[in-house]
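Thread title: Can someone regenerate the structure for this chain?

I was given the following input by a collaborator and told the matching structure tokens would be attached. They weren't. Posting the sequence so someone can regenerate them.
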Amino acid sequence: MKTLFSLLLILTGGFIYSQEKIITKKDSLVWTEMTCEKGIEAAKIDAQNGKYKCLSYGLRFDPNPELNTFAREYREKKYGIITGNGGCVISDYSKCYSETIEKIILEKFGADIFERSRKEAEELYLKK
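Best answer:
Regenerated them for you:
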């Protein structure tokens, strides 16, 4: 009985240590493409190409969705600034992209561009 038990113990130990070890590698695409530096670079390239995509993140309450849609469309047509909500999850890439593109937008169109374009859109919306 001791011999059988010892034999089973040795075989079990052999099976455990004979398995291949799984080596987990970082997904190179995610780790290299979604960095803060890549976000800054992408924002600068987009701005040079005249693409101003400014997204906000997190939950937003929209008291007047029709007016907000009108203002968003107006801002895009008149100034070329695309605004919207990017969802609830933010990465280093999206955070750095958003901060950089917002800085570029404010420098190009003025510090009050979002308020000014909203007021312009409201005036047109109320005339309808």
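The radius of gyration is 27 Å.
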